[in-house]
Amino acid sequence: MTDPYVHDLIRTFYALSAPSGLVDSVRRFQGRARIDLPRGLRWTKPDQVHLTLAFLGHVPVERIEELKQITQSVATGFQGFDAIVQGVGGFPRADRPRVIWAGLSGESHPKFGDLHHRIWDRLNSEIPKPAPVGREFHPHLTLARVSGPQPPGIAEWMKQNSEFGFGVWPVRELVLLQSVLTPNGPIYQTLVQAQLGI
User: Is the pTM of this model over 0.85?
Assistant: First the structure.
């Protein structure tokens, strides 16, 4: 017997979407990186670059309105800020990464963690997936994933770009996104967006 809720689940997460200036910077960086590392990487589409604050997984469709209200509530109580996007690193190790990311630096760095915790505090027990426990939050923008063997020269390339500057990011908007998985990668659809501090 088929679970009646299987087709009524939406894969969702809270995020900060990259503005056009940062998207352009990522696009230029990836263009150069494709020359240095011509194979072995699956690059994030620049217009889909974002910073995940809280991944909720599959949520019943009837809960989406609650999540939208939480989006607005958290955003209203959190002032926008400017962040510096700088440095390229990798998970789980910089010399043998499976995920390549752009980092955040400067005094604004703790604000991402504060926003992350505020969202989970508001979610509380309202969704089936509990807040992550025992894992430190590492704010980052995913640039690429290593889909197979490590590309030749990636360790040296990571060192060369460890301080790369992508520019200033005016963080002004919190979004609730739906992730639709496809054979060509995920497609993100905005369910609701809310201006910070308004």
Answer: yes
